[in-house]
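For this section, I looked closely at a protein sequence along with its fold in token form, which I now present.
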Amino acid sequence: MSNVEYDDFYNNLKDNSMKEKLKEILDKLIIEKSDIIKSEIDIDRKHIEMVNYCTNLFLPHTILFEATGYSLMLYEPLINMNIPNFDIAVYNKDEKILILIECKSSLSNPKKKIGDIKKSINSTQNNIDNIKTYIGDEIKYIEYVICLPITNAIELIEIVFSKDIPICIWGLDAFNNIIKIYNHKDEVHTELLNKGRCHRNNELNRLLYKGVKSSIKSSRTCPILYSSHICTILLHVTMLLITKFYHITEWDGNFDAHDILLILKDSIAKPNTLQENDYEQLTIKVIDIGKVKEIFFDSTPNIIEIENKLFRFTKKIKSSIVENFVKSNYIALNAKKLAKKIAVEEFKNITGWKEISSYFKNE
């Protein structure tokens, strides 16, 4: 049901008590949907943090970079092949080994996640030639990693072992900023190696079994990902637009699609496999969502071509309140839209409401 249909249904109710009941149901649903959206945004923020933790292990002059020869190769390396899950690719050019790392900030459904990763591993193996092109080198082996908080990592070990999945499990101790590799107690090194549950590089194994310190504070190399939650992207873009323009005294308040495009190109984690069209499509999405969520509006409604249009923020905002402004608009309007889609149906179920036409269906 659309928002218009909800409004029509509400307006056609003759009994004020029924209107109050419908509104009460809607308000309850708005709160529920708001909580869900807030949770999704928070999960996305934590996911980006996890990606940064893992990325920072392989930057130049770090322990793993110097000791193992592995370095960051790509973010979201398989996104253009429609293979989800993997956030980072690191590569050892001497050993020709590629490691694909999936980062998870939490794990609500371990069995489903393992199923998804298994599908992604199969898809990766079927696209090995395309991956070689992206890497620009030979690949002798591909190793797979999922990095999670320690408690989730330990929980996942049992499933990986029982399902015989070829994936290494890394656990993050966020209190101490340490990442370690974890294995099942019943598997010895030879079995782990043969089954893809530890690394071929002995030094990499040794350091990860010991625990390697990382930090998102020392270097945040990944501000946002192409696949980040649209609210995360919208918030980031809005913040940088304000930072870019608000110190310019002669700024008339307008910005254009190219300003957003440049921010996305500069902000989305690199290196990646994105093409110009990917950035352009995301720019259009940010503009469309920004207008719908009443964060900014079209200053040039009579101009059709997106590249010639100008936009403004719906009100004068400072960088100190950007986060609350964007999130509150996005969450409130999204929650209300989602709630209206199901409020009437729930109202009918609770009250036993029937349309008058239903009484004549069997006649």
